[in-house]
Amino acid sequence: MKQIAAALVTALAFVAPPALAQQLSLEELRAKVDQEMSKDDEIIAMLSSEDPARSQATMRVMLDSGDPEMTRIALENGIHSTDAVVRTLAVKGFLASEPLIEMHIDASDEDQNELSYVLGDLQVAANADQQAVWIGQLEEGAADGTCYPAERWPGDCLFRAVGGTLQIFGTDKRWHDLYLTDAGSLQSSMVLSRANTAIRVTATIPVR
Known about the structure:
This protein has 208 residues and is an alpha+beta fold. The chain folds into two domains: 2-95, no CATH class; 99-206. 42% of the residues lie in helices and 26% in strands. The protein contains six helices and eight strands, in the order H-H-H-H-H-E-H-E-E-E-E-E-E-E. It has an eight-stranded antiparallel sheet. The longest helix has 22 residues, at 26-47. Mean pLDDT is 85; it is low at 1-21.
């Protein structure tokens, strides 16, 4: 019994010091927080540089870094940049990450029966306000910087980049321009169709 007790005391002697060493004083905590915030502020300042070449280069390097935290900061700040090129890079970086696309469909001005029929082709249903949400995964490894297919339509571009313009392919077999809103979402006034029935909707896709 004495041997067991002695062994426990010895074990605790080795365990206790690291545990105590991990405790931070309030001053140390403040210093670490300030250091972390200062680093983020510096990165954001580089993304917001008045020199377009610098801000664009910063965005490219961050998106290519492979660091999830760097990518997050780049996307969150890039979509609100005053530089159109930086915004485009941020959106293309978002699509290149092969995200789960969440498209909010608003067809409040359309006929309810026609809406239900058209949305049936997408296998979604509208609520009482004639709004619906379509969720789809972008196809893994298929994006090439200009074409971004979805798993449901493998090999076919759901999104495409034409110069500085991003477009989405509607079920009417036409391309529709997407715009980045102040809230950081992609939005398009587009047409959805099925057979001879077509409706105009507002499609909104959060970039996150």
